[in-house]
Write a structure and sequence with these properties.
By secondary structure, this protein is mostly helical. Helices cover 67% and strands 0% of the residues.
Amino acid sequence: MIETKGLDQVSVREVAKIAGVSPGAPFRHFPSRTALLTAVAEQAMDRLIAEIDNALAAAEGETSLMRYRAIGIGFFRWAIANPVHFQVISTRTAIDFDGSSLVHRNGEIRAVMVRLMRDAETEGLLRNGDAARHAVAGRALAYGLARMYIDGQFPSWGLRGADPLEEVIGMFDLFISSIAA
């Protein structure tokens, strides 16, 4: 429904209609639109964490900086494969982010990112700078690239026909190279 009508048009009643159940049935599970979209966001977070875990497992034994990169790759894979989930989880005004498991789980991802960047700094893998700021900059770049792709902005930047995953990984690698010692 979000894909065809947009996030703003989601309602619990419309979901009931699409599901072929009585208009009141979903309200037993989701008392509001926010509750419904928060549940969707929690499923999105499950998928995101699974993709990040897979990427980190594939980077086992790599340096901390390359493991940080793996988190970015996992994020890109998830966002490109799940644009609607990206839209829902990124629209904090539509969900109860702070009152759900999302805030804690997002914090766990962020903590791993900062820890890996600090480890990379300790290992001498970073140019001088603040590891926590490098972690935020990488996150901002990853989010921005995913948002640009999902919003259809790649063609206006001359990124046509290429594999979007390869494109975003290539740009993320430019960031990694720019902070590497």
